[in-house]
Design goal:
With 747 residues, the chain is α/β, with parallel strands linked by helices. Strands 9-16-15-12-10-11 form a six-stranded mixed β-sheet, with helices on both faces. The chain has a four-stranded antiparallel β-sheet with strand order 22-21-27-28, with no helix packed on it. The relative contact order is 0.11. Bound molecules: alpha-D-glucopyranose.
Length: 747
């Protein structure tokens, strides 16, 4: 009864808000309206003509202590028990404050939500190298969130892929801070085009799942600034993200959620962040130290009344009214700090329209099916544009070129190709995994069947784990499509670069033993026209690569990944992706000193410094299996005519790209800067890119602007970004190991 009355009250509040808004916006005020306006208790902060800060000040001034403390911690029922969301702070109708309803995550409205679109995961979004498409995706996710009664999306995750073993690589945007920054900014801008607050997570240096609740990431300041913080910095400064989530781990000692260096010195004082810091679920370990460090909102899955001394922070509610009042009375926190916490929360709510467009979670939005044909088409587009083709021997793909009249036998092999296996490859495990209800994934098998039928091709399917059936089916077919998966998940890192499928129930996934490598080896040995499809969350080893005819990496492609794959196989779409992460040759090449990863005595020392991902391979002269930025399409391009000019702040690079093939297609010109050796920077670093689509034979003069930051490094002594004078190389090409154009510019 209580819950129902609160919802009705919330809806009443919502209607009150609407009425008062009508009054405020209408201009003409009748006698009746004047009386209503005079009685409107929220008038002082409900005028959208006032700035978010003015409105926040007015609201906080009208709140008593209990109303303020209500805002800084989660409400019950918590977590998924509140309409399948990740958590909420219940509204305060007497103050016209709507519910604040939080949900995961980066590939759509997930968790225990139902009837939403599972879009391609973060790694696919980054693989598109297409900011416009990423922004459209963010906007679509935000639209579904609001329709489901959610107004805080706990996305995007943007931690750097420091190792290929990170269980959550699939959620994030790869190994390079510039690519991660561009992707994060685009997705956040799209998300926040709705009355929804985005959330930059997990702040910061959260680069492993092993011991994630307690590990101390020890990283030098220059590496932190140049590698692990830029995506968060861009999210704050360029995308004006409304919230930041502090991570579970420690950073150079203090837990991230009670780390004043991160939460105040960097986030507030240096970057000017004006939203709120929300904890990861159960990442709070104290009351006053957390509040004084800069944490504004405590979230947790459930309230287990454990002693507050518990190491993991699981349990006690640290920002509950009793704890906060005790800390206030003891002088451990100030009233000013409490007021600032509330201001930080309501300011983005005002700025992004949450008061004007309140949500009211309940049975109706929970059950509402918010997928649309347009958003499913967008999911398909992103899935194809983020699919990376790593090999295509003798133009095996697309299939339509080989035999336009069809009539082929196509063997589809693999558990991951069938509707059950594919349902677990739409996203990685953990909080970002959708419930998968209602089941509507288009599996690779279903996608290929639909396309093959239109072309007169025959399709044979075998599950393939026995190996021999894969061999027989492959030998008897004209073309083979073998689909394998590696089920990465939040909460654990990958033990190696192998392929292990996962079985998921809602957000809970576990990996299963598998003979997928043997299956792929059997198929590729039996038929040279074998396309290997890898539904994976991060780099994998490929002992069978020499025998494979083609290799496609769709990663976790969402609900429509089977359709996108079939359209790629038949050439309706081109695999538009480029690697956001280096693929090592094997575990030996991707080995880490245990003290660096996963750490010793709960301490991971980032001794590699700036040499993360391709920076390390370049500095060590190592040849990876596939380099950062690599990807093939269905046509070819050449690059020419580089002209590099110094500008006041940085430089501008102009060059010509020409489609030298016989099909339309896209390429991603990438611009790397090599700093003078004396700066101590890695050999080459991505500082600009664009995506160019051209018809066969066409060419385009491309311009990429490099800002001051492209030539700067973090000077620890000066405590700021510095551009050392000298001659900088500017290199341009299709990926980090193929940069045919080079120029220089003096700074
Ligand atoms: C988690 C995750 C975080 C997620 C939160 C809420 O443990 O680390 O990414 O947003 O819980 O589900």
């Amino acid at each position: 009864m209580k819950k129902r009355s609160r919802r009705l009250t919330a809806m009443a509040a919502a209607s009150t808000i609407t009425a008062s808004m009508l009054v405020a916006l209408s201009g003409g005020v009748s006698g009746t309206d004047r009386a209503a306006a005079a009685e409107d208790p929220c008038a002082a902060w409900m005028d959208p003509a006032d700035s978010p800060s003015e409105r926040a000040d007015a609201l906080v001034a009208a709140m008593d202590l209990d109303q303020k403390l209500h805002m800084v911690t989660f409400s019950n029922p918590s977590w998924f028990f509140y309409w399948g969301t990740a958590g909420h702070v219940s509204g305060q109708p007497e103050l016209c404050i709507p519910d604040l309803v939080l949900s995961d995550a980066g590939s759509g409205v997930a968790g225990f939500q139902i009837a939403t679109t599972t879009f391609p995961s973060g790694v696919v979004q980054a693989s598109t190298w297409d900011p416009r498409l990423q922004r459209r995706l963010g906007r679509a996710i935000g639209a579904e969130a609001h329709l489901k009664g959610i107004n805080v999306m706990l996305a995007p995750g943007m931690n750097i892929a420091r190792t290929p073993y990170l269980g959550r690589n699939f959620e994030y945007f790869g190994e390079d801070p510039f690519l991660a920054s561009r992707t994060a900014v685009s997705v956040i801008k799209g998300l926040q085009q709705n009355p929804v607050i985005a959330d930059a997570k997990h702040f910061a240096v959260n680069n492993q799942e092993t011991d994630r609740m307690t590990v101390d990431a020890r990283v030098d300041e220059r590496t932190m600034r140049e590698i692990y913080l830029p995506a968060f910095e861009a999210s704050v400064k360029e995308a004006r993200v409304g919230s930041v989530m502090c991570a579970y781990n420690r950073v150079n000692g203090p837990y991230a959620c009670e780390n004043p260096t991160l939460l105040t010195d960097v986030l507030r004082d240096d970057w000017g962040f004006d939203g709120f810091v929300v904890s990861d679920w159960g990442a709070v370990h104290s009351t006053a130290p957390s509040a004084n460090a800069g944490l504004d909102l405590e979230m947790h899955a459930v309230e287990i009344p454990l002693p507050e001394s518990s190491v993991t922070g699981t349990g006690g509610r640290f920002f509950g009214a009793d704890s906060m009042k005790a800390a206030l009375a003891a002088g451990e926190i100030t009233q000013q700090r409490i007021d600032d916490m509330v201001r930080n929360i309501v300011r983005p709510m005002f700025r992004l329209g949450l008061f004007e467009d309140p949500v009211a979670p309940g049975a109706e939005p929970f059950l509402r099916d918010v997928t649309t044909p347009e958003r499913l088409a967008l999911a398909r587009e992103v899935a194809a544009d983020g699919t990376v083709m790593l090999k295509n021997r003798d133009g095996l793909l697309p299939l339509d070129d080989a035999s336009p009249d069809g009539g082929r036998t196509i063997a589809v092999i693999g558990w991951a190709a069938n509707p059950i296996g594919a349902s677990n490859a739409t996203a990685g495990g953990g909080s970002s995994h959708g419930s998968g209800l209602p089941p509507r994934v288009v599996s690779p098998l279903q996608g290929i069947l639909a396309e093959a039928r239109d072309r007169g091709d025959r399709v044979v399917y075998v599950e393939g784990s026995a190996g021999v059936d894969a061999e027989l089916a492959a030998a008897a077919a004209d073309v083979v499509v073998v689909v394998a998966t590696d089920g990465a998940t939040e909460g654990s890192d990958r033990p190696d670069l192998g392929l292990r499928p996962s079985a998921c129930v809602a957000v809970f996934c576990t990996s299963l033993p598998s003979r997928q490598e043997e299956m792929i080896a059997a198929a590729t040995a039996a038929n040279p026209n074998t396309v290997v499809v890898l539904d994976i969350g991060g780099p994998v080893r490929m002992p069978w690569l020499d025998d494979a005819g083609a290799v496609l990496v769709p990663w976790y492609g969402g609900l429509e990944h089977g359709t996108a794959l079939a359209e790629i196989l038949y050439g309706e779409r081109e695999p538009g992706g480029r690697l956001p992460q280096t693929f090592p040759r094997d575990e030996e090449q991707a080995s880490f000193d245990p003290a660096a990863y996963p750490g010793v005595d709960d301490t991971a020392t980032y001794s590699e410094g700036l040499l993360v991902g391709y920076r390390w391979y370049d500095a060590m002269g190592e040849r990876p299996l596939f380099p950062f930025g690599f990807g093939l399409g269905y046509t070819t391009f050449d690059y020419s005519g580089l002209d590099v000019r110094r500008t006041r702040q940085g430089a501008v690079a102009r060059f010509t790209v020409r489609n030298t093939g016989d099909r339309a297609g896209s390429t991603v010109p990438q611009v790397y800067v090599s700093a003078p050796r004396a700066t101590g920077e890695p050999p080459r670093q991505l500082k600009g890119f664009t995506k160019v689509r051209l018809a066969p034979g066409d060419s385009r003069r491309v311009t990429v602007r490099l800002d001051r930051r492209a030539f700067a490094h973090w000077d620890v002594d000066a405590d700021r970004w510095v551009v050392s004078p000298g001659r900088y190389g500017v290199l341009v090409g299709p990926h980090s190991r193929d940069l045919p154009l080079s120029g220089t510019v003096r700074r």
